[in-house]
């Protein structure tokens, strides 16, 4: 009886082959794997050289599996699925899922709702990665992200609308002690405008007061929306923020909506996750919970 598997190709090469066979595109495969397109091509060349046969036909527009590649692809996919299942069964502990969000989204929307999630899904270990940097799904171990913008978010990624962005002007009710809430552009100039990195004030003023003059209000600027909101709660001025981020502060009386008008933007909050053959079982549960929370907020 022979020892081991002397003719077995590297497991990494087989994993790359499975992804390329699924997408028939080196660039999309590289995106899913979190490596360069050149690294993917090198792995496939090495695998073909080791097997001494062609697995792919290189076409002017993409790739096609050869007959040998077609059969090999089905077998390798099945084998990798068996390895994945065997590995998963070794770890019966709570299912892990990592969600990537911005610090403001975490502190002003997600964290206040996490108690509900933990109560309803005690078997899922939800990990929150809060960063202003654009997290990479593969290298950062992220399963799903909330991203602000417009589709398309990149090759190999799925996206689904979570909630639209509606910008409102908010301030502490204490800011208006002894004075009226501003209703005109001129009255607004008597207050400090609190800015974040998005700098929505010029657009908000143009939408609210189309013929407005040059603003003379004093300004305070912050690099994160959550800081501008905290400054508003502390009575330091008027901030612009997504209604989703200030809804609880308004309900609790810490903030009031200064104008009834809302600024609607063409960018929204989206759920984004990588296309994979096998998704974590917990992914669909977390997606459903996030969408339900957005409906209720």
TrEMBL record:
It holds the Pfam family HTH_1. The keyword Cell division does not apply. PROSITE patterns: HTH_LYSR. Residues 9-66 form the HTH lysR-type domain. CDD domains: PBP2_GcdR_TrpI_HvrB_AmpR_like. Belongs to the LysR transcriptional regulatory family. This is LysR family transcriptional regulator. It comes from Pseudomonas putida (Arthrobacter siderocapsulatus).
């Amino acid at each position: 009886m022979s020892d081991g598997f002397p003719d077995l190709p590297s497991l990494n090469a087989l994993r790359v082959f499975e992804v390329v066979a699924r997408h028939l595109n080196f660039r999309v495969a590289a995106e899913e794997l979190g490596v360069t397109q050149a690294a993917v091509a090198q792995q496939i060349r090495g695998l073909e050289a080791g097997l001494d046969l062609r697995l792919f036909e290189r076409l002017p527009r993409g790739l096609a599996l050869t007959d040998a590649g077609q059969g090999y692809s089905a077998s390798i996919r099945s084998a990798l699925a068996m390895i994945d299942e065997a590995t998963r069964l070794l770890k019966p502990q709570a299912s892990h899922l990592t969600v990537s969000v911005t610090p403001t989204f975490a502190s002003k929307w997600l964290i206040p709702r996490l108690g509900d999630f933990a109560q309803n899904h005690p078997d899922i270990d939800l990990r929150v990665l809060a960063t202003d940097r654009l997290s990479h799904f593969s290298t950062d171990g992220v399963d799903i992200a909330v991203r602000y913008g417009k589709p398309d978010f990149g090759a190999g990624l799925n996206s689904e609308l979570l909630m639209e962005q509606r910008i409102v002007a908010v301030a502490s009710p204490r800011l208006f002690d002894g004075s009226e809430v501003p209703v005109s552009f001129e009255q607004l100039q008597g207050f400090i405008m609190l800015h974040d990195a998005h700098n929505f004030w010029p657009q908000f003023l143009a939408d609210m007061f189309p013929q407005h003059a040059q603003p003379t209000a004093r300004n305070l600027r912050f690099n994160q929306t959550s800081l501008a909101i905290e400054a508003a709660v502390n009575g330091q001025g008027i901030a612009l923020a997504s209604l989703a981020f200030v809804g609880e502060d308004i309900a609790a009386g810490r903030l009031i909506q200064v104008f009834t008008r809302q600024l609607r933007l063409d960018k929204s909050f989206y759920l984004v996750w990588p296309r994979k053959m096998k998704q974590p079982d917990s992914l669909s549960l977390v997606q459903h919970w996030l969408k339900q929370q957005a409906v209720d907020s």
